Amino acid sequence: MLFWPFFSSHTRAAVFASLIPGINIIRMLLMGLGIWKDDATVKSFSRNGDYRELLRGPFCYACSLTFSTLYWRTSPIAIASVCNMCAGDGVADMVGRKFGTRKLPYNKSKSYAGSIAMAAVGFVASLAFMLYFSFFGFIQESWTVVLGFLITSLTSALVESLPIHSVIDDNITVVLASVVVGELVF
Q: How many CA atoms lie within 13 A of 184 on its CB side?
């Protein structure tokens, strides 16, 4: 997202920009299927060192990021979906592991600390990118957009905390929640 302002204003620029994370879809498929061997990448993207793990979370992450890029730099939805998935969900995992002693009553693998961190960091990152894109004139900053980011971040954190990750990856549900709620509030 930091480099989105440097792409042209042509309508195909979003498609071109989405190719950058889109290449990772192909990488995750090739490595996850065992066709392309890269032990260092497998170790950095998997929790157990199993190359097949790349077909779950990392593959979904690359797909979601590619999809979000298509919304592009003039959309608060793109900002919210990327910031909630990348910044919010990433920090939630770290904070939850370190400080997550109090678990959520409906999902014992998630904590209050992680969920609060996700909502807070997703929201703050969204605000930062709103200001960044408004500097380039791509988005108009307003209190309505700020409120939309808050609602979207809270909803994304709630959806991420649901005990459904064995059915559908949170890298998909967080982005879907951001897009659906974003369509309603922006």
A: 8
Domain identity same for 32 and 124: no
Contact 69, 17 (CB under 8 A): yes
- Evaluated on CA atoms 156, 69, 129, 41, the torsion sign reads positive
pTM of whole model > 0.70?
Answer: yes
Q: Domain total for the chain?
A: 2
| Count helices and strands in the chain by DSSP H and E runs | 8, 2
Structural domain span for residue 26: 7-72
Statement to judge: residues 84 and 121 lie in one domain: yes
The residue behind tokens 């302002």 is: 5
pLDDT tens digits, one per residue of 112-155: 999 999 999 999 999 999 999 999 999 999 999 999 999 999 99
Q: What are φ and ψ of residue 49, in 5° steps?
A: 80, 10
